[in-house]
Amino acid sequence: MEADPKPKTPPRSSSSTRILLGLTALGGLVFVASLGAVVWLVNQEDGGEVHDGSYLHVELSGPISDSPQPPPLFADPSDIPPTGIEIAQAIRKAAEDERIDGVYVELAGMQTGYGIAREIRDALGEVRAAGKPCVAYSEVWTTGGWYVGSQCDHVVSPPGGIHMVTGIDARTTYYKGTFDKLGVQSEMLHVGDFKSAVEPYERAEPSEAASEAMNYLLDGLWDTWVADVAAGRGLSEAEVRDIVDRPALSPDAAMDRGLVDVIAYPSVFEELLVEAGADDWRDQVEAAMASAGTSGASVDEDDEDDAFTDLDEYVKGLRADWRGAEEHVAVIYASGPITSGAGDGGLFSGPTLTDQNFRKWIRSAADDDSVKAVVVRVDSPGGSGLASDMMWHEIRKVQAEGLPVVISMASYAASGGYYISAPADYVVAQPTTLTGSIGVFGGKINLGGLYEKVGMTQHSYKRGAQADLFAPTAGFSEGGRVAYQRFLDDFYELFLERVAEGRELERDAVHEVAQGRVWTGAQALDRGLVDELGGIDVALAKAAELAELEEGWGVAAFPRQKTFIELLQEDLAEVAAPTTVRVELDGPVGVDTGALGDLFLLESILSDGAAALLPGSLSLR
């Protein structure tokens, strides 16, 4: 008798497979989230590892952000690279910390603005004022790097080092020639003689007014740079200018001219850092180099570990001190171009400066019972006029609730960045901050000629004389131009009103220093646009003073730094939502893809009507 055949297993349906895969993915996500939570709880109170009698090792490399950036996988906020503010405040803390004997600054391709560079430089000055040695080292000394490093007692270069201290070169890209070739027309309007933000789209070169303003601005920056370096290096301003105008590129030439003090490998002079306060330290290093030859000296790794306290570890202690206080001064980071809407940035980019995000951050601070004052840290070239006014309103609301608001300007606080600064109870800027630019512009890019070149045509059916006011393939009609200019004029008057009210000035006095003109922080102080020159330390102290806080207050940062897991969960929650994709263009060497990014940004800002935006950008490299 034949046995019954073994029944076949029915094929698994695709829906069952999807369910199993979904459950597996969910389980993995729960596991990752749990692991991340454990890491967060373990590290939450991590005060960092500090070695007694050590040097604080400050490595300044790559972009230095003024606001917190997205964390790496499984990282909690205490492990995130320090911001420019935290670097400066950590150095200031080290100046008074008995466990720290000195500071060792290693510069490797630092990229930051003048405001943040000055912040770090001022902090190094406090180390010297406290009688602690400061040593700066770089393989490639640049204009920006030397500006920071020149504040130290000893500036060191390796035997094969390069010295590119050649001054400031500010450049603006003009698009008119390209637009003409493509058949594109710029339809831009502005208010103010110096609102040169529209010029790159309409001219092949700067106007006389734009050149006058830019030269005056750069003169102010350069005079400050020269004076600061001269003071730090113990040179005359004429000697500093000569070093820049006749560059000393090789190490020997740099040493002869006073650009560096010592030529040595890190493995040689790092062993002798403990003696950096001695009068003959440079002689000791030269003798060690002579005896070591070109091979360098051997360093015991255990001794080296104890000789230094890493900046990242030290900042953990700073953050723990701030968190542990009962009363706080909130620091709200207002960094980047100002736009309308939400947009938290997500997993792969930091929070964006939108009016809705700013409202969430400042409301979170105001609703926190431990927060007694607010410092808005502005590092923005401006952007949308509408969004700037909405942010202005939120600051006024917080002030009406009894919280003092102080502005701390970083590298930029211009146009819309100044708009949100104007209502503050006190405004602090660095001498090198780029600010002002009180003016507006707006318009559109007419692509009609480009359409014709590629064989595309459009036909418009409209009801209403100005229905095509913002059509991308038609220029402004005479009536449309008049209407839009009136809109810009009215917004400019609103801008003047906001500044006049906040700074307690007459409208005409504000107009005299406005019209889109950009000033350095030092120039703005002379014109009543800021109250004091200084860094975040000055702003925090002023906020605490206005709130009548006793010693022992801490700092609470907003937006709160989210963990990798939180950002991942938010991104997953938005997968089903409509998404706007922006392609980041990374072109070949020599191609300025950043200019295309500027056009994308401008298009986004102009969708709000009026743009309050700084023309161009300056950075230290």
Q: β content, as a range?
A: 15-25%
Task: Provide the low-confidence segments as ranges.
Answer: 1-14, 38-43, 294-299, 574-593, 617-621
Query: Which value, in Å, is the CA radius of gyration?
Result: 28 Å
What share of residues is helical?
A: 40-55%
Average pLDDT value?
84
How many β-strands, per DSSP?
A: 20
Q: What is the overall shape?
A: globular
- Multimerization status: single chain
How would a crystallographer describe the biggest sheet?
Answer: 8 strands, mixed
Distance between the termini: 90 Å
Based on secondary structure, the structural category is alpha/beta
Figure out the total of helices. Answer: 23
Topology summary:
Elements lengths: L13 H30 L10 E10 L20 H13 L3 E12 L2 H16 L4 E5 L1 E3 H7 L4 E4 L4 E3 L11 H7 L2 E7 L7 H4 L5 H26 L3 H9 L5 H7 L4 E2 L2 H4 L11 H12 L8 H7 E3 H14 L3 E8 L19 H12 L4 E10 L1 E3 H16 L4 E10 L1 H4 L6 E4 L4 E3 L3 E7 L1 H6 L24 H26 L3 H7 L4 E3 H6 L5 E2 L2 H11 L7 E5 L5 H10 L19 H14 L4 E3 L8
Parallel strand pairs: 1-2, 1-9, 2-3, 3-5, 4-6, 5-8, 10-11, 10-19, 11-13, 13-14, 13-15, 14-18
Antiparallel strand pairs: 7-16, 12-20, 15-17
